[in-house]
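Continuing the batch. This is chain 6 of the set; chains 1 through 5 are on the previous pages. Same settings as before, nothing changed between runs. Recording input and output for traceability.
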Amino acid sequence: MRHRKGNKKLGLPTDQRLALIRNGAKALFENKQIKTTTQRAKQISRYAERIITKAKTDDVHSRREVMKMINDPKILKIIFSDIAPQYKETPGGYTRVIKLGIRRGDAASVSVLELV
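Output for chain 6:
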């Protein structure tokens, strides 16, 4: 059963939410860690874990699937050459969310999302 498996809406329309998650995943793969709100970090983590799982098998089909999700050739090369080979034997849990506390301006919960 797939009950309650949907995405959090993050207070954004669908196209903006998907752009936020994609750009967050790109930043994560490029910089190895990002600082954002906790809910956004959790959603980006789910997206990034799916990408890494698909990238573990390096063939044409998986490259095309990941390219659909990322849409940036530079990041695609980083994923398949640097990131995915590190996790070849790991069954999951490629990212870590570390809570930092409350942001002073708007009292949002802030976290660091990093690759393990």
